């Protein structure tokens, strides 16, 4: 169950091939340019250029100045860009409610989302626990926004997880975010049951309790709590064991319809998937075949079968 509307994705401009880096070059991300670009509208940003820095320019770094993280010239820490960058980031991030995700540049003092080098004023490395100033503001203002770095997207599982999250984010924005009807939240939860379970069974139970709304919370408060818990849960990678649990749940819907040898074949494919012998697409394709033969309205609406366009070639 994917949205037909193009998704809006923020991205560090250098990842789209724009020559905005400190050395006048770029850091083109093939996946963003060749694959994801067919499904999204990009909104490129270069924070350094945004605060008026030149191309090319002197390198910058993060330093710890009495427990205050600052953005300074790499060779002269008295040249301080901290206030400019913080002001730019705060203002820019206030206008990103339309985005469904953001791809940042790793190892960037402005855009790095984790493991950034932090030095002291004399240039000595203190630790690798820093966060780029723009990235930090982005994630603080929009904690439920799917955010990833270019380097991490080279990992197949992380790439698929990010794509799945941006599509769910878009579905939420289109179906629930502007609604004042509890029914729309209930329908959303129902349609995403198995997709959520594939990431965290506990989260699915927790979200079910929220939807039941025994505490009679106002709808906006309920939606905020639900969406926050949902997006946190989806960060957990849906591994083979979790997928197999979901597949066996779904298999139960056909126990009275399919013939014994068909049931055995599905069980075999699920086992082979768990053992890493076949991709997830193998048992899913057979399940979809059974759904055509024995339609089930509840299963037909499940986002689990179509979390993103199959044409993206991500299913493993």
Automatic annotation (TrEMBL):
InterPro entries: 2-thiour_desulf, DUF1722, UCP037004. It comes from the Bacteria. Residues 193-309 form the DUF1722 domain. PANTHER family: INNER MEMBRANE PROTEIN (PTHR30087:SF0). This is DUF523 and DUF1722 domain-containing protein. It comes from Catenovulum adriaticum.
